[in-house]
Amino acid sequence: MAKSYYSTVLDHDAxxxxxxxxxxxxxxxxxxxxxxESHIEDGKAGDQVGAIRSFKLGDATIRERLMALSxxxxxxxxxxxxxxxxxxxxxxxxxxxxxxADGRSFVEYYAEFDHADVDxxxxxxxxxxxxxxxxxxxxxxxx
Length: 143
Description:
Blueprint: E1 2-10, H1 14-21, H2 27-30, E2 35-40, E3 52-57, E4 60-70, E5 75-80, E6 89-99, E7 105-114, H3 118-141
Antiparallel strand pairs: 1-7, 2-3, 3-4, 4-5, 5-6, 6-7
């Protein structure tokens, strides 16, 4: 199993950052330059485990299922739903927010998955998904 990882430190406390990212349907709010038309299917809430979010990322429609959410750990995990947006198997991503002693927060975003071309997909998810998402989050919080 491969792991793609990206992290950053944000100049906002962990509670503030977590309040934004914990809404599984909130991508279109803080990553609005890339994500549009986001909704939770079947009338579930954006913090309900099992909820499926469907959103547009560029021209692609992506569906992801919330697998876990913990306010105590300030983390959530999700998996791709069919049709998978990328040709990887067993993809599970996790976002986690941790406090830093000086009032900032450490945010990590990573995924584990299976694919024969580990190097390509590990680099792709870190550079093309996680890094831009966290840059957009930082920009949103800076407003």
